Amino acid sequence: MKIKHVIVSILNSYSQIFFSKNKVFAAFLLIVSFIDVWLGITGLVSVIVANFLALSMGYDKKIVKDGIYGFNPLLTGLAIGIYFAASWNALILVVIISILTLFISFVLQGIFSKYGLPFLSLPFLFAVWLMSLAFVEFANFGISAKEIYTANHLYSIGGIKLVQAYEYMNNFPIAGSIKTYFLSLGAIFFQFNILAGFIISLGLLIYSRQAFLMSLIGFYAAYAFYIFLGVPTDSLNYSYFGFNFILSAIAIGSYFIVPSFKSLVWTILIIPILVIITIGSDKIIGQFFLSVYSLPFNMVVLGFIYALKVRVIHKKGLIAPLYHQKTPEQTSYFYKNAIHNENLIYGIRFSLPFFGKWFVSQGINGEYTHKDAWQHAWDFVITDEQSKQYKNEGDLLTDYYCYDKPIVAPADGTVVEIIDGIEDNIVGDVNLRQNWGNTIIIQHGIGIFSQCSHIKANSFKVTKGMFVKCGQILANVGNSGRSPYPHLHFQFQNLNIVGCKTTPVSFNNYLQFDNKDQKFIRIGEPLKNQIVSNIEPMFALKKMLEFIPGTEYDAEFLVNKKSKAMSFIADVDIHNFSFLSYKNDKSKLYFSYDNTVFNALNYIGLKTSPLFLMFNALYFISFGFYKKISFVYRMPIHINSNKLLLIIQDFFVNLFVFLKTEYKSEFIEINDNFNPSEIKIRTEISNYLFRRKISNTVYTIILNNSGYSSINFKRKNKTKELKWKRK
């Protein structure tokens, strides 16, 4: 591991206490730990020992680098520093307890990972309790008296000036609750003074406005409940329990749950429960002459996360992020943007379950059968130019245009149920005894299933237990069950039971046709009498944006006519996410590539990188060439918005979002309708303050099948162009 990575792992061990990997914030915390030099030394030694040992034993370098194994030993190191006076014996003990804490971390990680839970600060808790119970037998260690004789200790370090500065901060004329807030923050690092808390709060504010806001909300919700219960708030000053409320609010309100109004409400509701647990557990733990430390925080946060994981139905507003952005507010922007663009609750994009154009004969809350708990369903048929569903007189099943047409999987999944062998009804008859007719149910994720019914008997192309891909043919449309004429019944549900209650889920990236007009719908629910279809991909266009993993691309990046030769490579990470990387600036562009669209998912790196230009220009490109359609998509606002406006927005992300970034792509020109070698596309990014457009950038893209593809834009006096082709 390089020296730079070692330094990063040390810094992250400090900031991970607040669920952060921000280096500036980590520097603030490192400084705080050295307000008491002996504590600073014991904490730093613990981190170095733990990270070095984790690496030497072959544990994941990324986990070590992120500080996951370092923050618990850091806390135990600080605890030893506060318990014992400075000595070589104490320093040796720091190393031993650091190793103990690390091994407890390994064990708890193995147990908790099975349930998708973090081990939080439980390793610190167990290690420091063991030490507290054992230290009465330690005859060769001097007990620290710095908590009792703080002024004498500070005088020995920095003389009278340091003592005066400490007394000034403690006697600063601010509200008692604010002093308690600062003391609670400082107590996280075993620094029982206002100065430490003030520095931590400043670092927290710089790192994340949301985390800072949650720290205040958590503390003051608890403070108010103490008053409501009649418990003296002075007890927070000498017990320092306030950090439990601060860390719990940050964890629930902004980290383990995507920040939203519901996460804010749940944070406020949980804090009173945490107060009772804190007071009660202190009485129990106190019987053993131990401090409760962070036990209440661990109990409540782990309990809340686990309770959310065992839900059957996952609701919007209480979403556990799969991947965290740099700050809680950026995570919120990323997921709020995704809510506009896809089915974020399930993390799946659903396509329409057929090929070509189909007519919605009955929609949600229909007039015939889609009622009450079964209202979220659709009936699809095919119609001709006269809006008729059949040819001739419509007396025969084969007269109906949709009869025997293929049904396809709306998303990847596993076939969990098939009912077959029910014969088709003659036109006009229904089978009420076998209501749903031949049916297939596919599980697409935890708690989300799709059901297709009234299928033709013996037409299934798949079997129960088979994994199917989006767009794979499943069976053919029939007229079985309660079906007077051939049609496809389709619904989403939360269980694998045929005909169970439906659940509201939308389709993604489809086309809607009204009076010969075409409209792109990025996410929606087709309505009765609408004609809809999936995007029909053009193979040549899809090929032009195919970035094959392991393939390197030659490129030229021009900024104001200054040219720079470069190359980037396509790859796949351990989570099977595709990305482009440019090693010179370590930037990464994550993207998805399916049958219908190329979508840039996320960008990590400098905004001066050529990959950032590519991310913006190629954010959403349809593989279907439609000259009269504008493909409009939302972008996460933190990527291109004004920095000052974004800082203001950070404070209000739980309540409302007044910024918006909109992306639009349009096809301009194609050199051959049947076998194109070059396609020209215009894309535009517009930023809005409320509903007022405040900026926009236009990109011109030329995709080429054999030579260089290119992106260029011009804004004010600045021009950029990126050309690339496969090596």
Largest sheet: 12 strands, antiparallel
Proportion of helical residues: 25-40%
Structural class: alpha+beta
Count of helical regions: 19
In terms of DSSP E residues, the strand content is: 15-25%
In short:
The chain has 727 residues and is α+β, with helices and mostly antiparallel strands. It is globular and about 100 Å long.
Describe the structure.
The protein is of the alpha+beta class and 727 residues long. Among the domains are: 358-534, Distorted Sandwich (Glucose Permease (Domain IIA)), CATH 2.70.70.10; 539-726. Helix 5 (71-83) runs parallel beside helix 7. It is globular and about 100 Å long.
Secondary-structure map:
Layout: H1 3-15, H2 23-33, H3 37-56, H4 61-65, H5 71-83, H6 88-112, H7 122-134, H8 150-170, H9 176-187, H10 194-207, H11 209-229, H12 235-239, H13 242-255, H14 261-286, H15 295-309, H16 328-341, E1 358-362, E2 377-381, E3 406-408, E4 413-419, E5 438-445, E6 448-455, E7 467-468, E8 473-476, E9 488-493, E10 507-514, E11 517-524, E12 531-534, H17 539-544, E13 552-559, E14 562-572, E15 578-582, E16 587-593, E17 597-604, H18 610-617, E18 620-622, E19 630-635, H19 643-651, E20 659-670, E21 678-689, E22 692-704, E23 709-715, E24 718-726
Antiparallel strand pairs: 1-2, 1-12, 2-9, 3-8, 4-5, 4-7, 5-6, 6-9, 10-11, 10-12, 13-14, 13-24, 14-15, 15-16, 16-17, 17-18, 19-20, 20-21, 21-22, 22-23, 23-24
Distinctive features:
19 helices, Glucose Permease (Domain IIA), alpha+beta
